[in-house]
Amino acid sequence: MRLPPMLPVLRERVLVRGIVQGVGFRPFVYRLARALGLVGWVSNSAAGVCLEVEGAEELIDEFVRRLELEAPPLALIDAVTRERMKPATADGFVIAASGVAPGEHTLLAPDAATCGDCLRELFDPADRRYRYPFLNCTNCGPRFTIIEALPYDRPATTMGSFLLCAECRAEYEDPANRRFHAQPTACPACGPVLALGSHRGEAALEAAIAILRSGGTVAVKGVGGFHLACDASNPAAVALLRRRKNRPDQPLGLMAREAALVGPVSAVEARLLASAAAPIVILPGQPSVGVMLPYTPLHHLLVAAIPVLVMTSGNVHGQPIVHDNAEALRSLAPLADGILLHDRGIAQPCDDSVIRVLEGRPVPVRRSRGYAPVPIRLAEAVGPVLAVGGELKATFCLAQGREAFVSAHLGDMENLETLEAFERAYQHLSKLLGIVPEQIYCDAHPQYLSSWWAQRQGLPVRRVQHHFAHAAAVLAEYGVPAEEPVLAVIYDGTGYGDDGAIWGGELLLARRGGFTRLAHLPYVPLPGGDAAIRHPERLARAHLFAAGLAWAKPDRNFELQLRRQIQCVPTSSMGRLFDAVAGQLGLRSVITYEAQAAIELEDLAGTVEDAGSYPLSFETLTPFWHALVDDQAAGVSAAVIARRFHNSVIEATVALCSAHRGPSTVVLAGGVFHNVLLLQGLRAGLTAAGFAVLVPRLLPPNDAGLALGQVWAGTALPTG
Ligand code: ZN
Ligand code: ZN
Ligand code: FE
């Protein structure tokens, strides 16, 4: 009898990098290896998921192919490397204890919205997790916000103190189960519990729902922090919450059972809303409204009772989001009628992310929960370095090798509390990733808290000009080669310029290692600095004064201040020009949140179709203001004037770029580009003029992108 030829037995070590921890990857590897009859082991390491398989060559090849094709839904594979090993005697395939291979980072998984399987269990009266607000599995649940250390294992999370009950343990150890090695798994017998006052569990939930139904406010502990919630269909409840939060006008985020309850939703918007990241999506309309879907079991239980909730960040005006129970009881008590707590800790606070869809593509407005801390891949290795960003919408960036980790949204760094939140977030991420910076980059503004902090770390610090950093962030995102220059149109609110003036309406010739300022809006004295920013009418007066125009209601003191240039800072800011036009149109005398007047100007302009333009140039604004004031005198509507102003900026910018053609690529960045009308119009105009246009797509166009730009530009600055 002839035996079949023996197939040669091979052994390979495979390293899988990417988002492969906390997403059910080891159980998936286990099942795949067993199905193919391969022996070996799999383990989490600090470098990713490491495994060894032994068997016939074809089977190992098939294993690696299917590893990438059939990976779990939340996994994001960056690279798979294979290495031939000596065959070892082993039988079976096991999940080995986590090891730590020094030198490389693993990628932390972001938090993920409740999956369909868990949702079915949540509302199935026969399931032992029926109405349990903390159920999750390897396909969903909290991740980044509960991880205290890496590698990702239960004891290294805030679930470490909850001992698994016998049933949960059996699921956790069963390779065929959806909860096989699901680190945060829990059930009513062994997991976290809700609390509201003296109520526990379902009674606490019922008490919260009763408060919401009666028009009250409930502080609800979520994944990355607290929300303040009320019934969105009750105007008195919404007005009460607005008063308590000191947000009279700013749009409030909504959480809806279905997005269609709030407004029409496009296919792309629907996909984003239902994604694992579950961001707030800004739906177009007048005025636009931000909505998200429930992303935790607790949220699902709440919207089952009240279909649309206002869900705004649980913080005191200007302070970071509240994320621990004691702090909530102290600082949110005056803002809420009840505080719905639970005993699962939040290791890292994380606000909701905000996205808008433009021409079918997502544009981030705030990149935080569900996205942070997924690294941005750099075209070249850097680091280890830290960039501390700017002041408003602060984020920091830790980078090493080809990975740039941009932090979750930290808020406006204008007070000590936000600086402390920044410092904690930095310590936490630095420890998790094992990145110890040797160099710090910060903004050139002498008064930013972030820059002040940077100087105190005992490390070399270099300053990167604000608008150059805006441009460099886009260069980093797109991996534009370092030696290739681009035209960068940076339209921004405020940024410290190399000449001590406030810049913000800039055309730069930029490449990774440096920039030249080609053109800017004419300097206009900004009286009273930051105070003027809150008064669009004063900005209008300052602009009219500069254009030699008188204003209707004289104000001697203000005129004197302008004439004598008392406390006047020259600015070329495009953001301030938008404010000034809004002020001149009388849209608003005082604003209560950043860019409010400019947003209202955009909304107004969006109500009319194309309507001509004014002679706006970067040499002088005088003819522009004369034409605008003439229109007003002739009784042209504010909406038409607003539209003509938008058109003017677009036309002037296209003309300016064409005049400086050389580079054929234009980068658009800066906070003013949250203006959709402007961004769309300018992109179309520049494309028609033959330019390739790059706009931010991973990070917001505003100051949240500065830290990445500081890293990318800073690491290429000439030394000395
Ligand atoms: Zn699940
Ligand atoms: Zn249990
Ligand atoms: Fe900026």
Say what oligomer this is: single chain
Cofactors, ions and other ligands in the entry: zinc ion, fe (iii) ion
Question: How would you sum up the global shape?
Answer: globular
Chain-averaged pLDDT: 92
Distance linking N and C termini? 80 Å
Give the biggest sheet: 11 strands, mixed
Q: What structural category arises from helix and sheet content?
A: alpha/beta
SS strand fraction: 15-25%
Provide the helix percentage: 25-40%
Q: In which order are the strands of the major sheet placed? A: 7-6-14-8-9-13-10-12-11-15-16
- Kindly state the number of beta strands: 27
Number of helices: 21
Would you identify the regions where 5 or more consecutive residues have pLDDT less than 50? 100-104
Taking Cα atoms only, what radius of gyration do you get, to the nearest Å? 28 Å
Please give a structural write-up.
This protein is α/β, with parallel strands linked by helices and 720 residues long. Helix content is 31%, strand content 23%. It is built from 21 helices and 27 strands. It has an 11-stranded mixed β-sheet, with helices on both faces. A 5-stranded mixed β-sheet has the order 4-1-3-2-5. β15 (354-358) and β16 (361-366) form a beta hairpin. The longest helix is centred in the last third of the chain and has 22 residues, at 638-659. It is globular, with a radius of gyration of 28 Å. Bound molecules: zinc ion (2 copies) and fe (iii) ion (FE). One zinc ion binds next to α4. Fe (iii) ion binds at residues 466, 470, 492, 495, 670-671, 703.
